């Protein structure tokens, strides 16, 4: 292929969370980037502001004369643009096939895992930037402190959220392969837990010979994944066998955690500004990476203290009349538990409402028992209809969920409008509403508050 700066690249699905940041990086690297999507998104306006041509809707006429067409996992063979490109003999590549070429020559830091990828990748970017290393990066959500989710960067490091879905992360050859927590997910892509774990083994095997691997010693599943020989392997966690440990862990009065980070030689105090015990683990990974590379741990700790999270991860959406709205992308049982536990710790003595939008039929069916045991920290539970996303109805539905879920105050309200109406009638000062959704249920609680404001006026 030509050098990237000389290429014309067309991206099908450019308005999605996975593709939009890649388009930004390619554009900043000098490529001539265009793209299309089925509809407008929060990203399409930003891309156009960067002089990237974005066409909506998708059509065969959108394919002009690109050197390559790049498409997301959501694009099927019958897509008119993909079909047109193949008809004309234009090279077409999935995300994972193109990433290796795009990142050639960079020291890639690939952060993988079933949970915490976006937050941990963002933490890493924030800390490395604070250390003056000017990393390139791609994250699936915007950093609250910078408002960005991608940059080409000027330094050697390129930090990327390494998504396992559709085996995207197997297109990477990371210098540093880092794992957060590994737990079975995406049954539509990985039919069995064994196949899922094998994908992570292959990911670790792709680590460069001169690179290193950083594992979570507190995660039992990671101890079961065979690691490649000949690589430098480090471990982080709370137990005493770790290379990098959190000791003296405490919940501070502000509802966030503090701890002392130890690398065996130096102890540095870390105070987090985002809630949840799971973020202790996320920050440990970042501190461990800094320790491996000999960076200033005191500066890294100060940077973590000033990190305020990312969009749709325990994000404060609105506050009115003593009612608080929190939006979170949690769509796996473990993520739901962690988010609701964080809410309970951050808002003690408040009534916690959980709005759960099950995400995809296959995931909800495969993990149903675990889902139904995830809401013990919610005082009130509202369940919406299942968000199909890329799937079609498979015979399993919301009735199956409601027969299984065990909670003292649970109700199925279906649509966002129904949820909003119910909340508007029942919320009271002091309530905290936590939306748990990778779909569109995050629209319901703000709509309820708008209804309440309207009535109060």
Keywords:
Protein-Tyrosine Phosphatase, Chain A; 3 domains; UDP-N-acetylmuramoyl-L-alanine:D-glutamate ligase; 457 residues; Rossmann fold
Secondary structure tally: strands: 21
Rounded average pLDDT: 94
Radius of gyration: 22 Å
Any guess at the CATH architecture of the largest domain?
3-Layer(aba) Sandwich
Distance between the termini: 62 Å
Can you describe this structure?
This protein is an alpha/beta fold and 457 residues long. The chain is built from 15 helices and 21 strands. The chain has a ten-stranded mixed β-sheet with strand order 8-7-9-6-10-11-12-13-14-15, with helices on both faces. A six-stranded mixed β-sheet has the order 16-17-21-18-19-20, with helices on both faces. A five-stranded parallel β-sheet has the order 3-2-1-4-5, sandwiched between helices. A hairpin with a 2-residue loop joins strand 16 (315-320) and strand 17.
Describe, in short, the structure shown.
The chain is α/β, with parallel strands linked by helices and 457 residues long. Helices cover 31% and strands 23% of the residues. A ten-stranded mixed sheet has the order 8-7-9-6-10-11-12-13-14-15, with helices on both faces. The protein has a six-stranded mixed sheet with strand order 16-17-21-18-19-20, sandwiched between helices. A five-stranded parallel sheet has the order 3-2-1-4-5, sandwiched between helices.
Set down the secondary structure blueprint.
Blueprint: E1 8-12, H1 20-28, E2 32-36, H2 44-49, E3 53-55, E4 68-71, H3 80-87, E5 92-94, H4 95-102, E6 107-112, H5 117-130, E7 136-138, E8 150-151, E9 157-161, E10 176-179, H6 193-205, E11 212-216, H7 220-223, E12 232-237, E13 244-251, E14 256-262, E15 267-275, H8 278-292, H9 297-305, E16 315-320, E17 323-328, H10 333-346, E18 352-356, H11 361-366, H12 368-372, E19 380-384, H13 398-404, E20 410-414, H14 416-426, E21 432-436, H15 444-456
Parallel strand pairs: 1-2, 1-4, 2-3, 4-5, 6-9, 6-10, 7-9, 10-11, 11-12, 12-13, 17-21, 18-19, 18-21, 19-20
Antiparallel strand pairs: 7-8, 13-14, 14-15, 16-17
């Amino acid at each position: 292929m030509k050098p990237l700066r000389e290429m014309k690249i067309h991206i099908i699905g450019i308005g999605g969370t996975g593709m939009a940041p890649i388009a930004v990086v390619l554009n900043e690297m000098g490529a001539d980037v265009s793209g299309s999507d089925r509809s407008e998104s929060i990203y399409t306006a930003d891309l156009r502001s960067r002089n990237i041509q974005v066409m909506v809707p998708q059509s065969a006429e959108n394919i002009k004369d690109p050197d390559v067409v790049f498409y997301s996992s959501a694009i099927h063979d019958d897509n008119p643009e993909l079909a047109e490109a193949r008809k004309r003999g234009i090279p077409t590549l999935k995300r994972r096939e193109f990433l290796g070429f795009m990142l050639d020559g960079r020291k890639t830091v690939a952060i993988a895992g079933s949970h915490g990828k976006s937050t941990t990748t963002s933490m890493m970017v924030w800390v490395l930037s604070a250390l003056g290393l000017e990393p390139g990066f791609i994250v699936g959500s915007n950093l609250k402190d910078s408002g960005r989710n991608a940059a080409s960067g000027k330094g050697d490091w390129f930090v990327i959220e390494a998504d396992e879905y559709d085996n995207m992360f197997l297109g990477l050859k990371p210098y540093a392969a880092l794992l957060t927590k590994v737990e079975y997910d995406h049954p539509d892509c990985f039919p069995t837990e064994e196949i899922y774990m094998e994908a992570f083994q292959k990911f670790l095997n792709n680590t460069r010979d001169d690179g290193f691997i950083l594992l979570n010693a507190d995660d039992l599943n990671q101890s079961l994944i065979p690691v490649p020989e000949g690589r430098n392997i480090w471990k982080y966690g709370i137990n005493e066998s770790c290379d990098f440990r959190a000791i003296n862990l405490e919940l501070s009065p502000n509802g966030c955690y503090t701890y002392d980070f130890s690398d065996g030689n130096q102890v540095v105090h870390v105070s987090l500004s985002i809630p949840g015990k799971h973020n202790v683990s996320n920050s440990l990974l970042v501190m461990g990476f800094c320790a491996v590379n000999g960076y200033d741990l005191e500066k890294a700790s100060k940077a973590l203290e000033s990190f305020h999270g990312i969009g749709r991860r325990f994000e404060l959406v609105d506050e009115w009349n003593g009612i608080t709205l929190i939006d979170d992308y949690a769509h796996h049982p473990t993520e739901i538990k962690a988010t609701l536990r964080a809410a309970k710790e951050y808002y003690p003595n408040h009534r916690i409402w959980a709005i759960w939008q099950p995400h995809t039929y296959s995931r909800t069916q495969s993990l149903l028992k675990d889902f139904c045991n995830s809401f013990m920290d919610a005082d009130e539970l509202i369940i919406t209809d299942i968000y199909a996303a890329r799937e079609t109805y498979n015979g399993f539905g919301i009735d199956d969920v409601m027969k299984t879920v065990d909670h003292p105050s649970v109700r199925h309200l279906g649509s966002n409008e129904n949820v909003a109406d119910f909340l508007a009638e029942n919320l009271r000062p002091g309530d905290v509403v936590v939306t748990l959704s990778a779909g569109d249920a995050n629209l319901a609680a703000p709509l309820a508050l708008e209804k309440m404001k309207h009535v109060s006026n």
